Amino acid sequence: MATQATGTGAEALPKRKAWKALQEHYEKVRSLHLRDLFASDPRRGERMTVDDAGIFLDYSKNRVTDETLQLLVQLAEESGLRERIDAMFRGEKINITEKRAVLHVALRAPKGTSIVVDGENVVPEVHSVLDKMTGFSNRVHSGAWKGHTGKRIRNVINIGIGGSDLGPVMAYEALKHYSDRAMTFRFISNVDGTDFAEAVQDLDAAETLFIISSKTFTTLETMTNAHSARAWSLANLGGTELSVAKHFVAISTNEKEVAAFGIDTANMFGFWDWVGGRYSMDSAIGLSTMLAIGPDHFRAMLDGFHQIDEHFRTAPFARNLPALMGLLSVWHNNFFGAETVAVLPYEQYLKRFPAYLQQLTMESNGKHVTLEGAEVTYPTGPIYWGEPGTNGQHSFYQLIHQGTRLIPCDFIAFAKTLNPLGQHHDMLIANVFAQTEALAFGKTPEQVKAEGTPEWLVPHRVFAGNRPSNTILVERLTPETLGKLVALYEHNVFTQGTIWDINSFDQWGVELGKALAQRIIPELESREETTLGHDSSTNNLIRRYRRLKD
Ligand code: G6Q
Q1: Ligand 1 centroid, distance to 306 Cα (angstroms)
Q2: What is the mean pLDDT of residues 69-88?
Q3: What residues does 248 pair with on adjacent strands?
Q4: Do 147 and 209 meet the contact criterion of CB atoms below 8 Å apart?
Q5: How crowded is residue 493: how many other Cβ atoms within 10 Å of its Cβ?
Q6: Is the pLDDT of residue 4 over 70?
Q7: Which of 100, 212, 216 to mutate to test the pocket of ligand 1 (most atoms within 8 A of CB)?
Q8: Residue of 367, 476, 469, 352 whose CA lies nearest to 414
Q9: Pocket of ligand 1 (CB under 6 A)
Q10: What is the DSSP string of 455-489?
Q11: Catalytic residue list
């Protein structure tokens, strides 16, 4: 039945042969312990790895056997993963509910290649925007671009939310080492006025450039912040509407609204409806990233993305990094009942990476119907969360080690640090390896007793182990490797969505709250007592807020 919508010819998931085989297989392997799996195969830790495109993935500490992997690969094939990858790269409109192509891979396609959407090769357009961003970035850096009073730009504030914020913030933090330290970068997303007030409070408006990043240029939070920014800029510059052109640029697909705001459309950087918000950090939405790290580093990042795109497109699934990670997530989610995935980067620069991944993964795969619109009969998108290590070890790792839930973890580490400092890096990486070892192998009652632990304390000190993890080891955090890591998770999400037969590229679930807020705003602002038509709880909260607010 799924044939028409997916174009893959795949059966509904519960009917696929590999799925049924995995159900039977699960019964055989569910109680196997990683201790035994490692003991019976001394080379497991070397065999169950992939080293490709500059990423080393050790997946040996997952609760899988060779047969599990074969069946998962078979599941990918029966699910039409290959056809779906090809359809995405061909520019087919696989985002069926919005009738759009899904072409973030075109954003990093090298010059001279061709990806056709609606009869047009989009790669030259991508490069023309990149060239325009490069020219702009160079003018800002050289001081050729001047503010209204003739001063050069030293502060850049990106105003955007969701996909127009999380990528830029994450990339700025991740690549700070490569950034121009003479400039200040800030990010305003929340409609909470505190976000705006704190971001501008110590800045000179004459040296401040706002990038209004909004695909639609209609988003409530972004437009509210953009108008506050314009008022702040005009008030502090004693400027006229003309000064807006010197202190505001826009990233958008909506030229009309950009012009209506007063931004010169010559200073608008475009993108296209085939770039989803959460897949857009490598489009013009990355202008703040380019301003921070420079055009060459930005292009190196795109190259990193592209290397993983090519790997995903061509590597056999058994050796395919994103496909394997996606399949392992499905295995733990749908068979072991794991409800979350923890992403644990042992790299302080990646502190916003889990937050970025939360949108990428959960907005993409938090879906309850198949492409055909039928209610799914199996769990879909797991909850992604995480914090950088080692900090998390002193907080929530307790639950991962000894709690009652199974939490598959992705550990991310770099062999070389960007900030060598005494023994710090060896200590950091020792903790990565120690954690994955402890999670997998635990500590038996016998081992605990042998340490002289009193009998009554033994159960408290036992670690059951058998807790799955991936370890991703990369040489160094660079713009290129950041691009690789993001693409790795983008295609991991794609793999999961394909298996579950869902649309990973729409986000209807965010609409209802937005619409209700629009209805409530005037009710909160009204000076007169109005009749409220909500439920009794919402009505009561509105009345209470109105009483307390002034
Ligand atoms: C991402 C979502 C969403 C979007 C924001 C901002 O995939 O679509 O997070 O990015 O709502 O939208 P605009 O860029 O249109 O302001």
Answers
A1: 23
A2: 98
A3: 210
A4: yes
A5: 27
A6: no
A7: 216
A8: 476
A9: 161-164, 214-216, 219, 222, 276-278, 363, 507
A10: GGGHHHH-B-----EEEEEEEE--HHHHHHHHHHH
A11: 363, 394, 514
